[in-house]
Amino acid sequence: MTEPLIQLDKVRKTYRSDGQDFIAVSDVSMTVNEGDLVSLVGPSGCGKTTVLKILAGLHEADGGTVRIGNATSGFVPGRDVGMVFQQALLLKWRTILENVTLPAEILGLPRREAQERARHLLAMVGLRGFEAKYPYQLSGGMQQRAAIARALVHDPKLILMDEPFGALDALTRERMNLEMLRIWRESGKTILFVTHSIQEAVFLGARCAVLTAGPARMADYFDITLPPERGLEIKTSEAFGSYVKRIYGLLGMS
Questions:
Q1: pTM for this structure?
Q2: pLDDT attached to residue 181
């Protein structure tokens, strides 16, 4: 039986702006087990990114409790987190291999080990043969694949993904969704995937957390019992449609 890696209980986050308090996250509770891929969906500005920043250790919660790690799997903030953003944010003066090895270099891994890991991960994300290329020579989808490899190179326990495919065209986004499921199965990592797309949340998630409009509250948190190896054809199924309809209802859009 897998153990919880993340436990949030009534988490709250307030920002100070122009002399006034702005509540970004009001009441968020959720448990994420090791190896889960959890999609986090909600309206724009509802606090999804704030939740990721709290988990990454970039922000501190004002209230509630945040527990990451367990008796079996310790957790070192920074060391055990990988992040993927909407933009790939690759350094233009470094090759793809050098971009992917960067987190490992910062953490002091030996160069040879970092490069071996990077080459393995580039092959896993479908970029074998592109190690010596520069970011401008890759398409947007390929750059995001490199960003995913970079997030995995230091072998973190938790991957946080903030709208990583939001800037891609529709067809590339569909392909990346398929790739994302394959990468998750092969890596076995715990992933929190933020998206505005209800269909993407259902397609990718083993579980789905639905946040209300800001300040964020947990509207629902439920298992998605679709087959783990999913093809795009599943989007036409009755089961898929029922999950989509459920989320629309939770967001007051049905």
A1: 0.91
A2: 93
Domain hosting residue 111, numbered range = 91-155
pLDDT at site 74 = 61
Mean pLDDT calculated for residue range 86-94: 94
156 vs 78: CA distance, rounded Å: 9
What whole-number distance in Å separates Cα of residue 117 and Cα of residue 213?
Answer: 40
Candidates 3, 5, 87, 8; CA nearest to 54 is 8
Into how many domains does the chain fold?
2
Q: What is the CA radius of gyration of the chain?
A: 18
Nearest Cα residue to 50 out of 219, 183, 215, 240: 215
Residue 112, both tokens:
């040879």
The pLDDT > 70 percentage for the chain reads 96
CATH of the domain at 53: 3.40.50.300
